Amino acid sequence: MKKKLNLILCASGHLPSGSCDADFESLYINEIKPLVSALNKFPKINFTFHYSGVILYWIERRHPELLMLLEDLLSRKQAEFLGGGFYNPMLPLLPAADKIGQIEMLITYLRKHFGRRPQGCWLPPMSWEQSLIRPLSSCGMNYVFLEDSMFSGAGLSPGPGGIFYPCITEDQGKLITVFPVAKAIGRELLKGMPEKTLAEIFEKHSLEINSPIIVLPVGGEIFSAAGENHNPESFYKNLFEELSALDSLVEFSYPAEIYKNLRALKKIYFPSPQAGENGDEYRTSPRQFIADHPEAGGIYAKTLYVHTLINTLLRGDKVRKRTAFEELWKAQDSGLFRLGSAAVPGLLHSPVRKAAYRSLLESEKITREKKKFVPSLSVFDYDLDGEGEYIFNDDKVNCCIKPRGAGILELDYLPGAWNYLDTMATERGDGRRCAFVDWIAPAGTLPGHTDQGGGRNGGRYGFKGGRFCGCEEYEALEVDRVRRRVKFRLPPKEGFPWGELEMEKTWQLKKNSLALDYMLKNTGTDGMNFVFCPQADLSFPWEGENFLRIFSVREEEKENIIFDDAGVVKDTKIIEFQDIKNEAVISLEASRSFDGHIFHIHTEPGGYQSTCLMFLLPVSLEGGKTWKLSFSLKIIS
Fold first, then answer.
1. Do 568 and 425 belong to one domain?
2. Does residue 13 carry a pLDDT above 70?
């Protein structure tokens, strides 16, 4: 009998939580619906699907008729569904219980809606680690799909034209079969002439004992790469017509069928993925990504923190514990571990991060239910950088103070499940943007003199010739847990601009508000003149009057700050940010009158990230003298 190519056609689809409804509708209209509709017209074509729980749940609510079409394909054994994590997470970054919980959650969904338990799984790019074999096996996963580029990293030499046969791999006695996904050939199919492409593969493998098994992605990322001018309906129709005519060359299979008949597979071990040669952010290992991008690292650290809270505070309460975990899992989306693009949302897209923080805070709120909450101050390594942060917790507000800059790293408003410090740096390596980190600017600096690229930290908005203290380490002089107060000190530093200046910052949590006291001292003998510029970044749902209104308050009269007027504030003591969506007002009140500059931070892609307020207060200090300033930050619902 003449050998045939075993062809596994597949498609995967996912959008991170927080993506707008238009993105889901576009994915449905341009990829999912045309693919499923075409398959119903070509019963000889078997197909393998992987859609995340996020996609399936959206389809269930908006287009339930498609689930019926998918069920028909499965019932006549024309299709197979693959499992994975429900929220398409970066599994290597999750605690063991979360790995298994996410996989089982998608298994349960597929069994409920289609009556079948998946036997294999699909992982996001760059998300393989050998230690995944144990949780995958414990969930009944017999095989997994990895890009063929991973095989060369495992020391397996490709045959002519590629790697077209599964292998097995092992960890601590657990085995799993690995199917290589031929992404490069999938892209070739977009150019047409599938007969020529597959005939070349068959010719190169004609002398092999085993018939090649080719996993070809024809949807998802592969299809998106075709561009806007690629018509989905005609593409799938033409592709399936041409493939259907290749009966003598191709056997359309699905993984479960092939898996039953595999014998004598080669065993190999796969290394953890490394960054692609072209430096593509999408091809950076997730662990390196969270090191390079502290915004992703902050969300990752918060997931571990909340995971610990759930296990510690909800022991014995299985119902609330399960509910809290399901909220937590929403924040473990793999989309947070790539920057994203205009077409595929990622870390740069504020709504994606906001959705993650909302889920984390909703989960944390569940751990507080049924108990009287006691305000507290604690010290631990909140962002996993090797140094302790200072955590203030109240019934409505969480606040994390970092010794580096002695500013606010995270500011959670629990009634709205919102982190007002979910900001994004404008450039890689610029560090997370914080609230109440400080600049020392030359005397005479005016509102509007802010400059991108000024100071010692390139790419940060600041002042030419200024000193940015937000990158400097403050020492904790006093920690009063009873009064929930921490005093930090920045000592004089020889060789720095205004190096004889000593600064103290005292943070105190009061009833759902934060108090900050500054003390600046000239430790030298000569006088010094400068402009003191605390910087406060706050992140809102979006910019514009429908989302955010900003007021300067003078003698109880409010003046709306219009950004057409460059966002300059003159001689005021109170600034109010009215968050329309969360129905909250953030009030910043100073003990001295100040001028200020307010402007929005944007990234490309991603758009609006945060709103920055630069306070400007002229200071003249004789040798040995001190200068004091106080702020009050309140969130009013």
1. yes
2. yes
